[in-house]
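Hi P.,

Sorry for the delay on this. The queue was packed all week, but I finally got your sequence through. Input first:
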Amino acid sequence: MISMNETWIKQRMSHNHDDYHLTPTDDSAWSSLFPRKMLMEDDEISWNIMYKNIKYSDQFKLRGSFLSEISLHNVRLDPQSVHGQAQQTNLEYLLILDVDSLVWSFRKIAGLDTPGSPYGGWEAPDVELRGHFVGHYLSATAQMWASTHNETLREKMATLVTALKECQDAMGTGYLSAFPSELFDRFEAVQPVWAPYYTIHKIMAGLLDQYNLAESAQALKMVTQMADYFYKRVQNVVMRHTLERHWLSLNEETGGMNDVLYRLYTVTNDQKHLLLAHLFDKPCFLGLLALKADDISGFHANTHIPIVIGAQMRYEVTGDELYKEIGTFFMDVVNSTHSFATGGTSVSEFWADPKRLGDKLHTENEESCTTYNMLKVSRNLFKWSKEMIYADYYERALTNGVLGIQRGTEPGVMIYMLPLGHGVSKGRSYHKWGTLFNSFWCCYGTGIESFSKLGDSIYFEEMGSVPGIYVIQYISSSINWTSAKLSLTQVVDDVVSWDQSLKVKITVATQHSGTATLNLRIPSWSSSSGLKASVNGDPLSLPAPGNFLSISRNWGNRDTVLLQFPLGLRTEFIQDDRPQFNSLQAILYGPYLLAGLSTGDYDIQT
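Then the structure:
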């Protein structure tokens, strides 16, 4: 393994370095700080205070100004657009699903009556991962409620939260799951078990989303009780064994436990939640990335991408620049050596060797979950840096990797993998198309979330004396920009073959006067020839593609911005540096990856 981060290595090799104990791969350093005996309550408080003082001294300060998210409550998709139709199809599925069936196994474990019948697939009562989809459903309904304010959905998700609370109360320990706690006994003993923390992450994240997006105080209390329960469990593992034993158990898939705990900490400010989040930062993986080693081959992709998202959240919470570097390097590695033209990654759920994708095109490419999570990674990086590469990636992966998950407008029919081989199709892959009530794969969970939050990365806000907004996705939608006292409506014309341009119209509505800045993305796939922009018919000078056009002015009601981006055909080589794959290329039209129809011979003579 060769590291490209020599400065970081030298710092970590110096034993008198102030934050030496934070080295992700240095288990012994963390072990020497973490108490081996079960802590009394007073000792727990002392430990947390000590850890906070060591870890979060004044050396950790967030640097620079980050962009702020625009709440889903303030963004609305055009119902006639492709994205609006996808959202509506997903809403219909969320409304079809039955609360009694969703919570059947939760009630069974809690010893409560079980009206109705359980769902099948991965939610069946004999499947160890059962309950994971319910967590996704909590997140998806919270996001969809924020995106639509559909009252029927709000009532359904409130009913679900109440039913789960009854289960948690019946068990009386803070534990909440659709499977017995015995699965964690096996996990902690490093015995075979199917990813219990993966499911717990989904449930905790769902409850936290219910609080953040739907203001459910009940959900916040529930997720806090869950965090306290698992704090005690992890603490007990360290008492009876070692910290290294806890790290060893994390070789199983644990979802984004670190991420949800960091997010919970931002709400509760409880040091136990912060410490527990640290303990789910997987050292054996983050350590490789901290050393800037491209050594992710053979790792299960969707086990590890959420760990990076958690590391990014650690940076936002603590200001520790190391975790910013980890996220940045990871994105660069995946995007440059492990990605398909769709923006997706993974081969049969795993990462292949770098730049060795030429012979990996078949039915089991690009697990949908990985695309969902890589979008989160790129979204965070864009918020921090405002760099075009991350906005371009988001558009590519959303357009080519997410929108095709659904089968048209059929509610609840989605895919697991996105086939990329010659002569293959979604319906003839290993999993084929899923069904409404008997699939519930991991990708069904991320699927219902993806189509509930399509509006979350179109706009980002920049705070300052003059409010600014970044428009990074051209999707027909409207936004209530409260800080600027403006509303924007974005209309994107359908792309047609006889007009090789993407045309966008942005209209301002306001009852107040004031200066604001629109930062409009000039996509890297466009070209300077034929690129046009105007305000109220007055042409604007434009930067080169791959930059933002900034328009700062005192906006008036009905002011209009017109944009025209030339579309052209281009090719991209597959990420494979072996000579036999030199001619294997993807064909794109602007941001759209094209599929070819042939009778068997797929070679193109040029």
